[in-house]
Design goal:
Length: 449
């Protein structure tokens, strides 16, 4: 039995049956099983790839199966998805290997369906060159995009309306790709040159970030948690889009800063790094168990000015009014900008979720604005691509709060980002297919003194 594929199948089954997140299931299964690094990477590729392409795979399988998908057992459906993904999207896997190993899996987990699995997958393999995702018979562009890019139809339709057909199609396609492995250099403990050299000695190629000096993209690695450079706090995993939120906040040594929704502490520790460990940072989060994560990250990275505490940002804190030079609100959001990293998001997020999220975001931003000193800075950010959670939140907030004003980002951003549309109005929008980062929204406002 192929251990890597069996592990991938168990992960897919658990995500489907228990409605679990694939990254958490993978973390558990890979910890429990003795697999070579190469096999661990293959398992990860199989799981993320199959979850990402689930709707497209189901469309293909349904064309070659005489049995409707809803009548298949969960084991059989996951085996078919796993096999079809290898046949259609992994060129380095011979179709015969994908078919044979899938039949073996069926022999263990769905014995009566071995012949069925074999017939369907070999039929897909024989006809794969004739499967044309450009010629999908659909009732609308949204339905066609949904099948082609494996995305919920309602969301594809909303993005077509918001961005236009061409932009939406390119964006959806980019969300099928695996993101680059991005880390932040901890300049409190090392330099770019020293870290690149140390990583190179471990066989890891590091290339400069697209925008920021403290960003690196790593090649030939999928897990850095065992590296000395990580354990010693010389670097931490963080996307450049997240780093740019701190760039827009622009904290200075000696200031008093509030990070309202801080866990697990990526931006918080970055703020401390920029402040050179001088000043004070309050880091709040609603979840008690996540407060410990902030503390752990701060200790590993050597950031000594963070005070983490459990606090519900929906409940205003009167005694904190006007206390902070800068406040960062990285609001809870739909997460549509990080679907490349967490493909489960697109299947778990429901249409009705957005309205409830917007109400939470509005209240958190309003409460957080009270903590800003006169003349101080308020930054709002999300990893969402949806205007309702971004531009509309800022426009509504400013219309109701005349003591805050947009502040231009011109000259505050690295390189060509200064020229992006919206920066004059204090807004930075980042898209995977344009900027190579996670999808992100950042807005900067100043409290008028």
């Amino acid at each position: 039995m192929d251990k890597a594929r069996e592990t991938a199948l168990k992960a897919l089954y658990e995500t489907e049956v228990k409605d679990a997140y694939s990254n958490l299931v993978l973390k558990k299964l890979l910890r429990d099983r003795q697999l070579e690094p190469r096999d661990r990477a293959f398992v990860t590729e199989l799981v993320y790839g199959t979850v990402t392409r689930k709707l497209t795979l189901d469309w293909v399988i349904s064309r070659f199966s005489k049995v409707k998908l809803k009548k298949l057992s969960n084991w059989v459906l996951q085996i078919l998805r796993l096999g079809a993904y290898q046949i259609l999207f992994l060129d380095r896997v011979p179709p015969s290997a994908a078919c044979n190993t899938s039949v073996e899996l069926a022999g263990r987990y769905a014995k009566q369906s071995k012949g069925f699995v074999n017939a369907v997958l070999r039929n897909i393999a024989r006809n794969r060159d004739g499967i044309d995702f450009q010629d999908i018979d659909a009732q609308s562009t949204a339905e066609r995009f949904s099948i082609k890019y494996s995305f919920p139809e309602y969301l594809a339709g909303e993005w077509i309306t918001a961005f236009g057909e061409e932009f939406a199609g390119t964006l959806l396609e980019s969300l099928l790709e695996r993101p680059d492995f991005s880390v932040r250099i901890n300049t409190l403990k090392t330099t770019r040159e020293a870290l690149v050299d140390e990583l190179g000695q471990n066989g890891i190629e590091a290339v400069p970030g697209r925008f920021l000096d403290e960003a690196l993209y790593l090649r030939n690695v999928s897990d850095i948690s065992g590296l000395d450079a990580f354990i010693e706090g010389k670097m931490t995993v963080q996307d450049e889009s997240s780093m740019l939120a701190v760039k827009v906040l622009d904290p200075a040594p000696g200031e008093r800063i509030l990070d309202v929704c801080a866990a697990p502490g990526g931006k918080t520790t970055h703020i401390g790094q920029v402040m050179k460990n001088k000043g004070h940072i309050d880091a709040w989060d609603i979840h008690e168990h996540k407060i410990g994560l902030i503390g752990e990250n701060a200790r590993r990275l050597g950031v000594e000015i963070i005070e983490a505490s459990q606090r519900d940002a929906l409940r205003p804190l009167e005694e904190a009014k006007g206390m902070y030079d800068r406040v960062l609100v990285d609001a809870p959001c739909s997460g549509t900008g990080i679907i490349r990293r967490k493909p489960d998001i697109k299947w778990k997020r429901k249409k009705e979720d957005f309205s409830s999220l917007v109400e939470i975001q509005k209240k958190i931003l309003y409460n957080s604005s009270m903590y800003v000193k006169p003349g101080g800075v308020l930054v709002y950010s999300t990893c969402s691509l949806d205007e309702r959670e971004n531009e509309q939140i800022i426009a509504g907030f400013l219309s109701e709060n005349g003591n805050f004003a947009r502040e231009s980002l011109k000259g505050r951003l690295p390189g060509t980002l200064n020229e992006k549309e919206g920066t004059e109005e204090g807004i930075l929008r980042l898209y995977p297919h344009i900027d190579g980062t996670d999808g992100f929204f950042i807005a900067r406002m100043r409290r008028i003194s």
